[in-house]
Amino acid sequence: MEDRATGPRRPPEPTFAELFTPKLVTVLREGYRAADLRADMIAGLTVAIVALPLSMAIAIASGAGPERGLYTAIIGGFLISALGGSRFQVGGPAGAFIILVAATVDRHGMDGLLLATMLAGFILLALGFLRLGTYVKFIPYPVTVGFTAGIAVIIFASQVKELLGLTLAGREPGEIVDKVATLWGAAGTLNPAALAVAVATIAIISGLRRWRPAWPGLLIAVVLVSVAAALLALPVETIGTRFGGIPSTLPWPELPPVSWERVQAVLPDALAFALLGAIESLLSAVVADGMTGRRHRSNCELVAQGAANIGSALFGGICATGTIARTATNVRSGARGPVAGMLHSIFLLVFMLVAAPLAAYVPLAALAAVLALVAWKMIERHEMATLLRASRGDAVVLLATFLLTVFRDLTEGILVGFALGTLLFVHRMATATAIEAIDDQADARERVPFDPALAADPDVVVYRITGPLFFGAASTVGAVLDRIADQRRAFVVDLSAVPFLDSTAANTLAGAARKAARGNVRFFITGASVGVRRTLLAHGVAAPAVEYRAQITDAVAEAQATKAA
């Protein structure tokens, strides 16, 4: 809606309660019936069955014990659903964090990881309450596709040792080039039994996805190969042989050791956790919105992610975030609201209390196979091919993000990709801004009735600027405006097709106006919206150097009258 006097009316700003009320409260206010609870119980159980092996696999790949993945899914997942701004978000440990978490454990130990996770939680709380969640959506699509594919490659590389049952002389390197060289050097230690377990796991999951997609393929595959490995006494490493099994209860909450020196040491890791957690969770919420037609509250979601990471760290868990795979499973299973995600955590707790001793028989090769399939699904092959074909700029952003993520660092990949994407956007916006002289061939796009004969007057120059006028286009526009001839009596710049301008553009127009004033040329600005005019006035583009008129016709007629006089 637009008011002629004040310009476009802005919708009222949402209140604090509207921004940060959890979706759980919204759903309960709408009326939560027994049928909704039954649907959420079925969805929660389905997601828990998927999350059980996946949470343990992600924790092991991250350099932590399998129980820490369960703690994360139980505590973090419950808080994300209970406090979050999405009806269907399901949280827990995510494959995207594997490399960051493993590197943090290597540098600072498990206590350092818990402290970094807690600090990331406080950072996410701050991002949410400062209402910065809306800006995460400005990350370019090629960047998200590139870093997701890069993470997938790193995850797969990290699982090759377990997939093949290799025995390494020392620690597995973190850098992918050194990792590949080390794995290649250990090829002679391949364990055929571990490879058979991994191949069987992949085959069962793939077969069930094809012929029985509604069945919980991950859990069925892990259970079957675990039973087979135990009955056949296969010489493969299991959760029990490496970790001694998992606890059957949750630990008591406990603060990790905190000191100023440790906070400074782990702060870069905490920032990386917070950045990736914000991106991953909000992307997952957007996917859920697309599947259901609902809208999430991004800032409320970040607050929930912050609380979840603090809670997870207190109970010994690792980084928690909303995950696309579990959230999509939740939606497809018929969830009605956040209760489904909360029940998923409760079911996981029940599984841990009841079946913890059985986890000791799970082969690590089976969990590695699960993560290998997760990595394969993370690579959006069709989207990558489309972006590579779409334009050279998108291809450069995608490849730069992907290669830096794989060979350098995840955070560096995101930052460089974002910077390149921003430069590409500025270039495209700058080329979309045009400045044209209105002459006797004035086209039909003119917004107001205008007599082309007036524009043909050699003593009156009329230019129309179309598109956003900002620093990327200001130099081009300035070069045109600087060619004002001193012998002209009037210069008219029409801004009716300029939706916004920035300080650089305002300064460019101010310079043109000063030059016109020195040559005794009247300088008119026409058609400026309220916002554009406010910006110009704030930068000194005002009388007597500049005269504002509503329409081109007004300015040209006034210039003609001055000439006639």
From TrEMBL:
Domain STAS: 450-559
GO annotation, biological process: transmembrane transport
Gene3D superfamilies for the chain: STAS domain (3.30.750.24)
Localization of this protein: Membrane
Membrane topology: Multi-pass membrane protein
Record-annotated membrane-spanning stretches: 41-61, 73-101, 113-132, 139-160, 180-205, 217-236, 270-290, 302-325, 345-374, 395-420, 461-481
Chain segments annotated as coiled-coil in the UniProt record: none
SUPFAM superfamilies documented for this protein: SpoIIaa-like
Keywords per UniProt: Membrane, Transmembrane, Transmembrane helix
Keyword hit for Membrane: yes
Short name of one Pfam family: STAS
One GO cellular component, as annotated: membrane
Protein name: SulP family sulfate permease
